[in-house]
Amino acid sequence: MQAIIYDLDDTLYPTHALSRIPFQPFFSHFHHWSSAYITNEQFQEVVKLLWTRPIDEVLRKFPLPLEKIGESLKILQEIQIDASDITATSGVNLIPTFCNNNILVTSGIPALQWAKVRALAVGDYFKEIIVDNPLLPGAGKQPLFARLIKKYHWDPKFIAVVGDNPDTELQAGHNLGMKIIQIKKSGTDKSPLADAYINDFHDLKQVLKQVRLKGR
Ligand SMILES: [Mg+2]
Q1: Which whole number is the average pLDDT over 4-21?
Q2: Tell me, what's the pLDDT at 183?
Q3: Residue ranges of the domains in the chain?
Q4: 102 conformational bin, left if phi > 0, alpha if psi -120 to 50, beta if neither
Q5: For residue 215, what pLDDT band results from cuts at 50, 70 and 90?
Q6: φ, ψ for residue 9, nearest 5 deg
Q7: For residues 1 and 170, what is the distance between their CA atoms, to the nearest angstrom?
Q8: Cα of 62 to ligand 1 centre, how many Å?
Q9: Is it true that domain 3-15+86-213 has CATH number 3.40.50.410?
Q10: How far is the CA of 36 from the centre of ligand 1 (A)?
Q11: Counting beta carbons within 10 angstroms of the beta carbon of residue 19, is it exposed (0 to 12), middle (13 to 18) or buried (19 or more)?
Q12: What is the pLDDT of residues 79-100, one digit of tens each?
């Protein structure tokens, strides 16, 4: 493979293994003002979805004013995540052995995504780390992947995308003709787009050999 592009949330670590404690100030702030706009049940739904779905998608679903969301996001930007608050997916330390060009592309609030990268101590594994802020115009994984191919003159046939989300990184990689590897997560269906599936990074070396030979 010329390069492997990894997702962060539910790929390098399972979101269920991220402690909720550092996020308490954010959720208290959010709960306080949002009660004027949404019911308590809807607030609980927002809380649940924020752990599993992209933040922009969740916030669009509810009638919440952007300027209020912005105030809560400022709190989110100040959150510190410690190594003890987050558990990496098994075999993450093998990433440097898979390829010389490992790239991390993650969507989310930049300060928060960087806090996770630091807590996981994976920063050195990647040639490049790109945080895509979904709340800014022009965000999206497909244009980012396309820019990477162009920048490094890579052939998409020899690029693997490793991620969990069928609608974001897996779709983007598929559209660009890359090899798609889905990491299995409880409660998520297998993506029909995927060339292969892994449980954790111990499976990846073998799977990369298989997908390399697979034509499409
Ligand atoms: Mg993900």
Answers
A1: 94
A2: 96
A3: 3-15+86-213, 20-77
A4: beta
A5: low
A6: -65, 130
A7: 17
A8: 22
A9: no
A10: 31
A11: middle
A12: 999 999 999 999 999 999 999 9
Please state, in angstroms and rounded to a whole number, the distance separating the CA atoms of residues 100 and 81.
28
Cα 8 to ligand 1 centre (Å): 6
Q: Are 207 and 198 in contact (CB under 8 A)?
A: yes
List CB-based neighbours of ion ligand 1 within 5 Å.
7, 9-10, 164-165
pLDDT digits (tens, 9 = 90+) for 109-121: 899 999 999 999 9
pTM over 0.70: yes
Q: Which two tokens stand for residue 62?
A: 């509810």
Sign for the CA dihedral angle at 90, 55, 186, 18 comes to positive
| 3-state SS, residue 26 | helix
Asked whether 75 and 111 are in contact (CB, 8 A), the reply is: no
